[in-house]
């Protein structure tokens, strides 16, 4: 294949699969049905496979079409994430609103919220500080940030909060780890007695694990390795360094591709709430209030 397929053709293919109709897909993309049909045939010629089965009852994807559409959807999702991430970086300098966020929220949710904010208010400017949950709370309490986003399950003295999302920690290993082939779930006692790859003290991820184990009557042994970001932790697990409990946001793609294997855990509640926080004596206003509204709509 000399050149990769264009993005508009990939979007059209994905919509054909969803709609079951080339006409419906064409209408959603704002092109005529003849133009959409021409584009789809050009895509089939470029890839060298038939993607769409056409009949009087509509259009359905062939087996090859379903495979290409599934991969195309991931490409389009990554493109949207890239666009949102670039928008976030563009807004960080000289911003009147300073936001502090934990790593999970900053990497996987906040870029989309800020992109929505700037679409509704092009003049909005947001600066972001990324740190663990305990430091986010300290920054907001000290007035260094007007609004914070944390994944901490604990008390938040001096702060008010609203739930903006929910998350679950998943136990993951690389495909070569013995746990990747086990049939029975990992019990709390075994998990507590296994040195894991872990985030540093003060992170919401680590606090969630420690609280869940404590509720089951256990205390974790010292970590095998402590790392300061979920991305670094994910990379260490993928390299075979050991098991870790990580946000399902962080490992979602790796579970799909098989780069990481989720291991079932029983007897522990590893769900957590993601919260926006601000000082108790204040109420978010202006750009902070607008950003909070976008975060709450995404719940």
UniProtKB/TrEMBL annotation:
HTH lysR-type domain sequence ranges: 5-62
SUPFAM superfamilies, sorted: Periplasmic binding protein-like II, Winged helix' DNA-binding domain
Keywords of the record: DNA-binding, Transcription, Transcription regulation
Domain of life: Bacteria
Pfam families recorded: HTH_1 (PF00126), LysR_substrate (PF03466)
Region (Disordered): 177-204
Gene Ontology MF annotations: DNA-binding transcription factor activity; transcription cis-regulatory region binding
Family: Belongs to the LysR transcriptional regulatory family.
PANTHER family: HTH-TYPE TRANSCRIPTIONAL REGULATOR, HTH-TYPE TRANSCRIPTIONAL REGULATOR CYSL
The protein's name in its UniProt record: DNA-binding transcriptional regulator, LysR family
Protein species of origin: Pseudonocardia ammonioxydans
Lineage: Bacteria, Bacillati, Actinomycetota, Actinomycetes, Pseudonocardiales
């Amino acid at each position: 294949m000399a050149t990769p397929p264009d993005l508009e053709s990939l979007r059209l293919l994905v919509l054909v699969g969803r709609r079951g109709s080339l006409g419906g897909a064409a209408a959603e993309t704002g092109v005529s049905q003849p133009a959409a049909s021409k584009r789809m045939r050009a895509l089939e010629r470029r890839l060298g496979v038939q993607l769409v089965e056409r009949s009087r009852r509509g259009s359905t994807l062939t087996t090859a079409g379903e495979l290409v559409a599934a991969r195309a959807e991931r490409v389009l999702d990554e493109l949207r994430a890239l666009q949102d991430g670039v928008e976030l970086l563009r807004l960080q300098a000289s911003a009147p609103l300073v936001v502090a966020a934990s790593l999970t929220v900053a990497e996987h949710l906040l870029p989309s919220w800020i992109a929505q904010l700037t679409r509704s208010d092009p003049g909005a400017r947001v600066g972001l500080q990324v740190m663990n949950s305990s430091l986010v709370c300290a920054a907001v309490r000290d007035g260094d940030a007007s609004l914070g986003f944390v994944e901490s399950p604990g008390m938040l003295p001096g702060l008010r909060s609203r739930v903006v999302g929910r998350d679950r920690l998943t136990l993951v290993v690389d495909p070569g780890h013995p746990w990747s082939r086990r049939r029975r779930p990992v019990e709390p006692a075994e998990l507590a007695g296994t040195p894991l790859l872990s985030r540093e003290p003060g992170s919401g991820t680590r606090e969630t694990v420690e609280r869940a184990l404590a509720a089951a009557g256990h205390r974790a042994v010292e970590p095998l390795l402590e790392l300061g970001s979920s991305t670094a932790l994910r990379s260490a697990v993928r390299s075979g360094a050991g098991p870790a409990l990580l946000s399902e946001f962080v490992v979602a793609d790796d579970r799909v591709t098989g780069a990481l294997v989720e291991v079932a855990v029983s007897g522990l509640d590893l769900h957590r709430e993601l919260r926006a926080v601000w000082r108790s004596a204040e109420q978010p206003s202006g750009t902070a209030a607008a950003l909070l509204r976008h975060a709450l709509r995404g719940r």
